[in-house]
Amino acid sequence: MRVLVTGGAGYIGSHTVVQLLAAGHQVEVVDSFANAKASVVPRIEALTGSLLTVHAFDVCDRDKTEALLAGGAFEAVIHFAGFKAVGESVAEPLSYYDNNLDSTLSLVRAMNRHGVRRLVFSSSATVYGADPELPMREELPTSATNPYGWTKVMQEQILRDVAAADHSWRIGLLRYFNPVGAHPSGTMGEDPQGNPNNLVPFIAQVAVGRRERLAVFGGDYDTPDGTCLRDYIHVEDLAAGHVAALHRLQAMAEPVGVWNLGTGQGTSVLEMVAAFSRAVGRDLPYDIVERRAGDIAVSYADPSRAHAELGWRAVKSVDDMCADAWRWQSANPQGYPDA
Ligand code: WQD
Description:
By secondary structure, the chain is α/β, with parallel strands linked by helices. It contains 11 helices and 13 strands.
């Protein structure tokens, strides 16, 4: 299929582009490069042996997005583009609502106008809110505890309403748990700008010497070792889930499908530190400090619907995640080069 990938230069987007190309799809990327480096493009091309067409603009720009959909003859879109930092969304709610909602409204409007009605949307387990029943199942109610999470809840609702008004749409809502890891080649990976908000990139930067020590946010939770449990999923498994969802859209009877992309297993912060230490071959320094506001103690998926309906399953282990993340970080201590 001819697939447009928005945010395709980003962490999950770039790994998904590689797998789409390997699966024989024709892919083009649109990315504003607000949260990605252009130097990822030659990495994708080297891994896939394909020349990648990249449209460098923000899909919030309605005229450019309209022109791209008008001329691209795309059959489907995978929509990653969006801001995704929880803390930043609390400090800058308007920029999150503007960017995340406008980008989706602009894209879907242009898709609809040009009869492109196959969409895979990057959602998040954050839509299960503050105190969800565990393991998290897709039929649970959605809510949020921060503006970023609300933008995901709202985007899911927008897409459901669009599909309810025109049943020719086929939309897959993919709820990610905690994406970590990197392409096994070590040439692509997670490259957060500034202070990493997330655990694994922070640990990786400690390991490579960019950060002194890891602060473990809370050691007094009601969990086996007192630290929070999360459902970490390898970015390669996550990318494979997008390819599977894209294929599923063709066969779907219903206009909208919702799937958790997780392993179904919870891993604690200290277990992740230990796994990363094994990958690096030495103990990594950390201090247990006070809890981070807004963290929930335990989060993990019930991935059975994705197994049954997408024929997809996460296969990589926490040790695979850490080994691949370390290979990327040690080969690219400063992340992607600027030029
Ligand atoms: C994981 C655990 C922290 C950093 C967030 C978003 C979610 C999704 C994934 C976008 C927690 C602990 C972390 C550190 C730590 N993003 N931690 N020290 O918060 O589960 O999920 O990222 O879709 O929407 O909410 O991920 O990696 O920030 O934290 O101890 O320096 O690691 O307290 O228990 P989180 P995380």
